[in-house]
Amino acid sequence: MCLAVPGKILSLEGNKGIVEIGNMKREVFMHLVPEVAVNEYVLVHAGCAIQKVDEEEAKITLDIFKELLENEVC
Q1: Which residues touch 60 (CB under 8 Å, ≥6 apart)?
Q2: What residues does 45 pair with on adjacent strands?
Q3: Which of 23, 25, 44, 47 is the most exposed place for a label (fewest CB within 10 A)?
Q4: Sequence-separated (6 or more) residues with CB below 8 Å from residue 39
Q5: Global pTM value
């Protein structure tokens, strides 16, 4: 099973960017989504941003992940 998680773009430099996922910041490759901008959300899989996502959808997904972790479901 593959899992992609939404993250907020904090900065961009060339085809790399810093993305915030929950309380973590990670450097990810952005070459698959060249049209994105800082403060937008992307799905991150295996160190690459693979798709731009709507902010509302991203926040719903992140809230679900947070709830799962708080309830020790995963």
Answers
A1: none
A2: 48
A3: 23
A4: 8, 9
A5: 0.87
Task: Judge whether 49 and 42 are in contact, CB under 8 Å.
Answer: yes
CATH code: domain of residue 17: 2.30.30.140
**Residue 38 confidence (pLDDT) above 70:** yes
3-state secondary structure (DSSP) of residue 6: strand
What's the domain count of the chain? 1
pLDDT of residue 68: 86
Q: Which domain does 40 fall in, by range?
A: 5-70
- The kind and range of the H/E element at 26 are strand 24-29
19 close to 12: Cβ distance less than 8 angstroms: no
The contacts of residue 73 (CB under 8 Å, 6+ apart) are none
